[in-house]
Amino acid sequence: MGASSYPRYRFDHAFGAPAAAAAPEPAEAVDPLDLPSLSERQHRAALAAAQQAAQAEGLALGRREGELAACRRIEAELSATLDGLAQRMAGLDAGHAALMERLEAQGACVLVALVRRMAPRLLDRVARDEVERLAADALRAAGQAPLLTLRLHPSLCRPLEERLAGQEVFKGRLDIQGDPALAVGALEASWGAGSVRRDPAAFEAAVAELADRAIAALHPPSDPIPSI
Fold first, then answer.
1. pTM greater than 0.70 (yes/no)
2. Residue 177 contacts by C-beta under 8 Å, 6 or more apart in sequence?
3. Which keywords are on file for this protein (predicted)?
4. 157-180: per-residue pLDDT in tens?
């Protein structure tokens, strides 16, 4: 078959001519959140920063909780300490009050004991005045009796005579007698219708009895009674 017997190839475009660009297919809509926005380096840096922030927040929270727990513990200990101090102060106050009462009682006992010991001296000191006072009472009581006898210690006879000299109460005879057997400050007055007597020993016994009763009332039985 000869070459002239084949039909000639026909093409829409000649070879060597630039082909027409195909029309681009329309792109699908993409969500911006689906697009990568960070690199691996940035991602790691952001993760490290988040970890540091979380650690810092955890440390701060732990510190606050620790400080709060410490404050509560300190408040509890302080409250317990204050309660203990209050109880101790109450005990000290009670002890102080008891001690003061004891000291006051002891001081009162000392004073009573001093009075008891000084009673004879005090009675001797006022003996002259008491004798003169009782003699004057006897003069008034004797009234119209013919005789009034006064017996006392010889040391007080002259002072009594001087004291009664010139008296006009008793009109009868006044007989003043010294008796060494009588204590200083003792006086025995007698007249027909009656008599009076002053005995310093009776006063001393009364003072001693009152002192003993006062000391017994002031001091508990277990406490020693001070001796003067």
1. no
2. 149, 150, 151, 152, 157
3. Cell projection, Cilium, Flagellum
4. 999 999 888 888 888 899 999 999
